[in-house]
Amino acid sequence: MKSPARRAILIGMDGASMELVYNMVDGGHMPHLGKLLDRGAHRPMIGVFPTLTPPGWTATSTGAWPGNHGVMDFNIRKLGGRLDETVWGINTDLSQAEYLWNTVERAGGTPLLVKWEMSWPPTVTSGIQVEGTGPGVSNHHQIAGYHLFVAGNWQRRSIEGQRDPETLDPSALQTVSDVDSISVSDAVGWSNLPPSSRPFKEVPLTIQPLVRGRGSMLRGKKGTPKPFYGLIYAGGESGYDRVRICRTRDAADPIAELAVGEWTDWWLDSFEIDDEGVEGYMRMKLVNLTPEADVFELFVPQIWPALGYTEPPEVAAELDEHVGNFLQNPGRDALGIIDDDTYFELLDFHHERLVDVAGYLTATRAEWTMLFIETHASDYTSHFFLGQADDLSGADKETQQRSLDGVIRTYASIDDMIGRIVQLAGEDTLVCLVSDHGGTPNQFRSILIEEALEEAGLLVYGEENGRRTVDWSRTSAAPVGLVHVFINLQGREPTGIVPVSDYEETQLAIIDALHAYTDPETGRHPFALAVTRADAEMVNLWGDTVGDVVYALRPEFDGAHGKQLPSVSFGIAGQHCTFVLAGPGVKEGIPLRGQVRAVDVAPTLCYLLGLPMPRNVEGGVVYEALTDPDWHLNS
């Protein structure tokens, strides 16, 4: 029996709401996606709650809800531990449901995963996986995060407004230094100097392996600093205008020479981590150098290894030889620190390289069945640009325009990626475009549930070593992760004070406190939902790691996403996931009327490909999108 399709390409866009995607297409910023809409079926898709990466991508990749697969959050309740102890959610070992790529393998097919989110450690057995850990700094492989060497009166390029916390946006670090401060000094001890109309100056450019990576995901414990030297000189008569990058103070042996705005090529260099050598790719850009050398700014993006980030391991060497260096993070954690142009130059390279890798693998593995490929750029823009890109944010016109331009440039870059990926699809290939959640602009300050619980006397703070800490001896309830509140229950929690007999009464007290809470700045009630653990099944959450109370915020009181319900539309965006399906067996150019859910993606692809359903699947086939829903009976 021949299935409608033989292959499928699943394209992921983290944090891309269908509302915003439609706006970008209508504005002419995503012509390739517009063509895909014209030849396929599409609809705003209902995702998971919380509207967050780990539960979202795991649901899409398994066809199971969070209550089934178990990957609830970035920070998941650690059973048996104190309420402030959590388990890091970027880990395939946590999933209790079968992944779609393993279903493909079980049926004898070959999956190819290219930076598919939430897929590490690898579970592929006969397929190929390239990276796939987490967003931005949340990865296991980088040698070092970015370096931004600055001297003089340097200025950040931040956008005014609130910043989402790391519990929601772990793609950037907020508690480490975001620049490498250096000094411009007179050049001493150099040989073989070039002609210069001004006295030579120098800057130290020391690379620190392991810097700006998430602590729990670092590839080692100790990185050996690697020095480079920058010789600043004046090649013309208008002041300082060049920097020559060298390994030693011998100007006759440069790595590169840069004018303002120029990048070096990528080069492979050696580093030392935990007393062992590792090779990774570097490049540099001279962002700013004033004629008097009183401002200096040089950027080094993420240093990614040549090997060690694929499964099977030998695939990395093959890609290194035939494709070139990989780049997992285009500088999301440097947004607002570097200039926007530098970020988008890296983003375009990042997207190009993702497609280069996908193109090579599909061309050299003739037996491939399904390609999984994902970009996190749409989520990066949600956390940085989108917040102030809408009139409702109240941002000034200049900030709003810069923010909207950033959103547009992001989605245009994604669209170029989509256009190239679609070219990899033959007549027998489905193309499905999805996201794990959406993102919304900001209006009011983000509400911290701790304030509501403290106001009600349920969460009590004390002081320890000069720091404000939770007093567990007087605390009845505390938040865990994004949307969960746990009762400090006797016999269950190490610090438990609430008798089991008072459990239900305490649940109701928490719910009452959240519904009664008023934002002091606006006078509004910010909580859209507060339910008991039993009632949380209505948002597909159940099990021991679900809070005793689960809550949701109205979109105007949340950040980009996370605590909002998955059905929200707000301003130019929303929380509906993107869903577009095109190719053999799919109707052309129709907006679907019936509901589509994140758990429906995997079974729909399996149905059209004639594959078995993933074990633990809960979703259904989107029959409305199919030209022949009964193909298996009519063939």
| Gyration radius, rounded | 26 Å
The chain-level structural class is alpha+beta
CATH architecture of the largest domain: 3-Layer(aba) Sandwich
Q: How much of the polypeptide forms β-strand, as a percent range?
A: 15-25%
Number of domain modules = 3
Return the CATH topology of the largest domain: Alkaline Phosphatase, subunit A
Task: Write down the overall geometry.
Answer: globular
The description of the largest β-sheet is: 9 strands, mixed
Tell me the helix content. 10-25%
**Order of strands in the sheet with most strands:** 19-6-5-20-1-21-30-2-31
Q: Your description of this structure?
A:
The protein contains 13 helices and 31 strands. The longest helix has 26 residues. The strands form 8 sheets. It has a 9-stranded mixed sheet, sandwiched between helices. The protein has a 5-stranded antiparallel sheet with strand order 9-10-11-12-13, with no helix packed on it. Strands 8-7-17-16 form a 4-stranded mixed sheet, with no helix packed on it. The mean pLDDT is 97. Helix 7 runs parallel beside helix 9 and helix 8 packs antiparallel against helix 9. It is globular. Helices cover 22% and strands 22% of the residues. It folds into 3 domains: 243 residues, Alkaline Phosphatase, subunit A (3-Layer(aba) Sandwich); 159 residues, no CATH class; 109 residues, no CATH class. Strand 22 and strand 23 form a beta hairpin. It is of the alpha+beta class and 635 residues long.
Summarize the structure.
The protein has 635 residues and is α+β, with helices and mostly antiparallel strands.
